[in-house]
Amino acid sequence: MLDHFFAHPFLFPLLLIASSCLYLVIRNLLEYRAITKLGSFAPRAHSYLPFGVDILYRTIRHSHNNTDIDFWEWLFAWSPNKHSKTVEVGLARQRWIFTADPGNIKAILATQFQDFGKGKRFHEDWKPFLGDSIFTTDGQQWHDSRQLIRPQFAKNRIADLEIFERHVERLMNKIGGRGEEVDIAALFYRFTLDSATDYLLGKSVDSLDNPHAEFASAFAEVQKVQNMITRSGEFNALIPKGTYWAGLKIINAFVEPFIEQVLRLNVSYLKEKTNPSFLDALAATGIRDRNAIRDQVIAVLLAGRDTTAGALSFTFQELSAQPEIVRKLRREILDKIGASKPPSYEDLKSMPYLQHVMNETLRLYPSVPFNVRQALCDTTLPTGGGPDGSQPIGILKGTTVGYSAICMQRREDLYPPPSADFPTVSKYSPERWDKWTPKTWTYLPFNGGPRICVGQQFALTEMGYTIVRILQRFDRVSKYWQDGGAQFKSEVILSPKNGVQVGFWEREIG
């Protein structure tokens, strides 16, 4: 019989192909049955190549061109219901769900929190960069990380604004005062890196005085490659990672001496230390695992530095285009605290127009525009399934779900109709907040549910403090960026694609 088998050399390949096809058919049928027992399918974005290679190419191309929001809107166009922003695609051997529906995002982040997490794949992809930190773990490990970090962002710590004052003075000395053109975004990223490392480590990298600081360049490169690794899914082995590993080596070499130094100190000494750094406070809890400390420091640095720098950059991009907002904001600042006094934490909270400006920036430019979760068990999403998008979607364990705050926060159908008192959704208008409050789960600049950003008050305080100090000193902001040039990129955190070219005019005294 074997002789007969080998006499037909094509028989074995044909049997192998047939058995593989049969396996795929059976697997798909079982998967279909399991999903339909839970709920419905979402509308599907069509793929024209095997394993969704064309869709994967599309997402990488949009990421490279910094047009991610266009990719998401292309996906949502496959839904027959224009009010349903939930679709699914098949990538490699996996089913992906993409959503910008408030009800689904609420389920992912809050009401079905236990069903969705970062998942094993996300943890493995991000472990070299963020390790076992608050941003990469689930369950008890995540809970322990959050409990460890939360006290470091208590009001009594973030209300101490001396660190911000120290670095904002150096920032303002870099931006001229007679309308000289500067890329304020580049300066903000150096400023927030300096203040973040000062707060976290007790020592600044001083990148404002050294714009070519090796650490800053390495941190940016690692984020860029990490973004591509995440987007590539099962194909991430194809992403070149030479600069990624080199950047991680630089980051670790910078942070490790600080960790070694603090671990040589007695816990009782650290507990009694006046104005301890974030690193001091972590070590004072008794933790002695070097990797655990490193992971939390790097994670908080990513969140604390880039989010604030991006939000400040977009704020002054918009202010430079609308001088009337600058005048109104300065008037509130001068009426409240004058032209020279540094604001207190309470001063910042008592300026409604300042709060409206920051809210409006984060509405149009949320710091984390796209995020991802993995189903930790068989579950559902409440809406988006079926022909009319009104049925629950069946979700099997291991399914990846992407959700987008920026797409949701720009949905016209979630806002009141445009009027004299309420401009169109795409217009930057702090005044819309005078009499309007977003519906629950339609405005999520800091995420929501149990994983809501633990450092949001730190970020808002630094952002507000910086805006106030700059506008106390400068009374005009000139726009030098070109219309159409105000684009953004989303390499983990949203940032201006081409920088923000503006000029500042120092107020005349006397």
UniProtKB/TrEMBL annotation:
Its cofactor is heme. InterPro entries: Cyt_P450, Cyt_P450_CS, Cyt_P450_E_CYP52_fungi, Cyt_P450_E_grp-I, Cyt_P450_sf. GO terms for molecular function: heme binding; iron ion binding; monooxygenase activity; oxidoreductase activity, acting on paired donors, with incorporation or reduction of molecular oxygen. Heme binds at residue 453. Gene3D superfamilies: Cytochrome P450. Keywords: Heme, Iron, Membrane, Metal-binding, Monooxygenase, Oxidoreductase, Transmembrane, Transmembrane helix. The chain crosses the membrane at residues 6-26. SUPFAM superfamilies: Cytochrome P450 (SSF48264). Belongs to the cytochrome P450 family. PANTHER family: P450, PUTATIVE (EUROFUNG)-RELATED. This is Cytochrome P450. It comes from Alectoria fallacina.
